[in-house]
Design brief:
Blueprint: E1 3-7, H1 14-25, E2 29-31, H2 32-40, H3 44-67, E3 73-75, H4 84-93, E4 94-100, H5 103-110, H6 123-140, E5 143-146, H7 152-163
Parallel strand pairs: 1-3, 1-4, 2-3, 4-5
Helix pairs in contact: 1-7, 2-3
The structure holds shikimate-3-phosphate (S3P).
Length: about 160
């Protein structure tokens, strides 16, 4: 059974939409960040502190590979697209839904969040990361859904509609 992968920047609603979507579709739900933390018994900030982003990306690719055949709704981390091989894994094992949120809405939603190491940097760097990733999200997506001004339930209805 195919997975449904939710991709998008930090704060785009992947986890909350994913949970609700999985209930709706009666599929298991996997939050990839939580999966990484549980499997390795380390928090994401600790993984970044110990081995930097490169080490986190290795954990992330390994985790993605181990859930590829679960037939689940999978909320990925915002940087899943930083690792080239991840696209092929997702493409070959499911549908990729990009939850697009504009940068101002992300700022409002996240504010300061110590559990997101790549958000914990100055405004210019946050924006540069967002701008850099935008084309890749679009390029990898089978479908894009705009989540900027919408409630979780409205987004779920749209996703259900586009994956029919
Ligand atoms: C990251 C996003 C985080 C988490 C890690 C790296 C990123 O997930 O995977 O902190 O590179 O954007 P969320 O998108 O769920 O915040």
């Amino acid at each position: 059974m195919q997975n449904i992968y939710l991709i998008g920047f930090m704060g785009s609603g992947k986890s909350s939409v994913g949970k609700r979507l999985a209930e709706r579709l009666q599929k298991p739900f996997i939050d990839l960040d939580q999966f990484i933390e549980e499997k390795n018994e380390k928090s994401i900030p600790d993984i970044f502190a110990e081995g930097g982003e490169a080490s986190f990306r290795e954990y992330e690719a390994e985790a993605l590979n181990s859930v590829k055949n679960k037939g689940a709704v999978i909320a990925t981390g915002g940087g899943i697209i930083e690792t080239t091989g991840n696209q092929a894994i997702m493409d070959n094992s499911g549908k990729i839904i990009y939850l697009h949120t504009d940068f101002d809405s992300i700022i409002e939603r996240l504010q300061e969040d110590p559990n997101r190491p790549l958000w914990n940097q100055d405004h210019t760097k946050r924006r540069a990361l967002f701008e850099k990733r935008l084309p890749t999200y679009k390029q990898w997506a089978d479908v894009t859904v705009n989540t900027s001004d919408q409630a979780v339930d409205e987004i779920v209805v749209q996703v259900v509609d586009v994956i029919k």
